[in-house]
Write a structure and sequence with these properties.
The protein is an alpha+beta fold and about 550 residues long. It has 4 domains: about 100 residues, Sulfite Reductase Hemoprotein, domain 2; about 170 residues, Sulfite Reductase Hemoprotein, domain 1; about 80 residues, Sulfite Reductase Hemoprotein, domain 2; about 140 residues, Sulfite Reductase Hemoprotein, domain 1 (2-Layer Sandwich), CATH 3.30.413. About 35% of the residues lie in helices and about 15% in strands. The chain contains 17 helices and 21 strands. A hairpin with a 5-residue loop joins strand 8 and strand 9. The longest helix has 22 residues. The radius of gyration is 23 Å and the shape is globular.
């Protein structure tokens, strides 16, 4: 992972000290709420439904055991003993008293962490493939480029107050595991016929009230020009994006409205930066700078190829299931990456207790050279596990509640915190997620249902990515009560799901006491209608929505008269 320099550490410590000064002046009544709001937001501090919420950046999802232990300490000493890992590869704490906020920021700075630009109308945390650098199908390692983008975007003076928040994702593998088409900018690393590295650039994707798939604006930007090209995109957005209506302020609205005119403006701006901007050429990334950053992303000392083994030999049923679902192929022979599942009965999806954070840190030290990853799907991953260590890791993961063999299955759902915490939410997500999880605890049944993406959002802001779920659930408010809209057929762009597309609504919303029944009816319809070996998403696309809609409507009780 990226090794902080003295400059990096001074930068983060200075930011923490600045926040302490701002917070002290605010608490003393010298800095009004409205003035303090923008300052706290760009350090990751929200005021939520019940208490402040702190969002901590985990750049492109990579962290080490030292950082995880510090998060465990913060959870234990300042929060209520747990944290929540998000779809943007961040961590959120929901109960830290604001008066203690500066102390927490100092603790984060001690381990090279922060909340800079995890909120506000700025470029947010750069996200990537959770298996970046270890994936068997990787074409180009995206981590060095993601780090360069992080440094470029952090406190960028021109882009501190954009029309709306801005999100970038980058992938370097044959399979898109970063949902790049669903982002304001999506970057796909590729090589041309000459073997040169560059980026396919997508622009204008996003969820929310108007789900839009990003469009290709450039098929191949040379890697060393990518900052210039991104500068051009964000400048055009900053100049022409709407500021009169926050619901129409995202770049997707501008791209959709302007079409080719937007593309032309970006390409003209790109050329202008190179031709006439003072210092424009300084944004062309030097080979030496990429090499400096890439030096942090080498194979850990002690990792060397070894003969691959049959990891299933002698495995009992439970261990085999874990191997099938939680263990992934690796680019280094004799190694695997292993998912620690954060989806189980008793805790909301994506939550980890302080004890589990400490345990995950211990497992990473013992089995993965001290490195962990946070996944887009709200799980943790150990990227450097020897095949010979898999039995011992399984036993240890099981002891700490990480070994649920459900990765990619129905209970491995994405869920936002919803109305239990978020001030923007219209409905709770966590109780529905827990109810569905409890109903589908039989592993034989889960295996029979097979691969399926269930995504739950508590409001139209789509933090639970419901639009891209094979089954999507959106919480809505009707006269102060919770209702849930169900969509089917969405895709995040992965090989399983196919090209990115938004799911389609199957009818009027369901009352809170009907939502889990409706999901169960949809699953039962799939099991009845599927062909041999056919996955859920394929059945939906083959037979259409009517059969699922009829089955869901048949369970209506509260809404039967509506």
């Amino acid at each position: 992972m990226y090794a902080y320099t003295d400059f990096d550490r001074q930068f983060v410590r200075a930011r923490a000290a600045q926040f302490r000064d701002q917070l002290e002046r605010h608490l003393a009544g010298q800095l009004p709420d409205d003035d303090f709001r923008a300052l706290r937001l760009q350090n990751g501090w929200y005021i939520q439904r019940h208490a402040p919420m702190l969002r901590i950046a985990v750049p492109y999802g990579v962290m080490d055991s030292r950082q995880m232990r510090q998060l465990a300490r913060i959870a234990r000493e300042y929060d209520r003993g747990y944290g929540h890992f998000t779809t943007r590869q961040n961590l959120q704490f929901n109960w830290i008293p604001l008066a203690q906020g500066a102390d927490v920021m100092d603790l984060l700075a001690d381990v090279d962490m922060h909340g800079i630009q995890t909120s506000g109308n700025c470029i947010r945390n750069i996200t990537s493939d959770v298996t970046a650098g270890v994936a068997a199908d990787e074409l180009v390692d995206p981590r060095p480029y993601a780090e360069v983008l992080r440094q470029w975007s952090t406190l960028h003076p021109e882009f501190a107050f954009l029309p709306r928040k801005f999100k970038i994702a980058i992938s370097g593998a044959a399979e898109d595991r970063a949902a790049i088409a669903w982002h304001d900018i999506g970057l796909q690393l590729r090589k041309n016929d000459a073997g040169e590295v560059g980026f396919q650039v997508l622009v204008g994707g996003g969820m929310g009230r108007t789900p839009v798939i990003g469009q290709e604006i450039n098929a191949f930007v040379p890697w060393n020009h990518i900052l210039v090209y991104l500068e051009a995109i964000v400048r055009v957005y900053n100049r022409f994006g709407r500021r009169d209506n926050m619901y129409k302020a995202r770049i997707k609205i501008l791209v959709k409205a302007e079409g080719q005119a937007f593309f032309d403006a970006v390409n003209a701006e790109y050329q202008q930066i190179l031709d006439t901007d003072e210092g424009g050429h300084e944004q062309i990334i030097p080979d030496a700078e990429l090499a400096r950053v890439a030096a942090s992303f080498v194979t850990p000392a002690g990792v060397s190829p070894a003969p691959s083994t049959d990891i299933f030999a002698g495995a009992d049923a439970a261990y085999r299931r874990w191997l099938e679902r939680n263990v992934l192929p690796h680019r280094v022979s004799g190694y695997r990456s292993v998912t620690l599942s954060l989806k189980r009965v008793g805790l909301p999806p994506g939550d980890a207790t302080d004890a589990q954070m400490d345990a995950a840190a211990d497992l990473s030290d013992q089995f993965s050279h001290g490195e962990l990853r946070v996944s887009h799907d709200q799980n943790l991953l150990l990227p450097w596990v020897r095949e010979s260590d898999l039995p011992a890791l399984y036993a240890a993961a099981k002891a700490h509640g990480f070994a649920t063999p459900n990765i990619g299955l129905l209970t491995d759902m994405i869920t936002c915190p919803g109305g239990d915490f978020c001030a923007l939410a219209n409905a709770r997500s966590i109780p529905l997620a827990q109810e569905i999880t409890e109903r589908f605890q039989d592993l034989d049944e889960l295996w029979d249902i097979g691969d399926i993406d269930l995504h739950i959002s508590g409001c139209i802001n789509s933090c639970g990515h419901h639009h891209s779920g094979h089954i999507g659930v959106l919480g809505v408010d009707k006269d102060g009560t919770e209702w849930y809209q169900i969509t089917l057929g969405g895709s995040d762009g992965s090989t399983l799901s196919g090209p990115s597309v938004a799911g389609k609504v199957i009818g009027p919303s369901f009352a809170a006491d009907e939502a889990a029944d409706a999901v169960e009816a949809v699953i039962a319809t799939y099991r009845r209608e599927r062909q041999a070996g056919e996955r859920f998403i394929a059945t939906v696309r083959r037979i259409g929505l009517d059969a699922f809609k009829q089955a869901a409507n048949a369970i209506r009780r509260t809404t039967a008269a509506h």
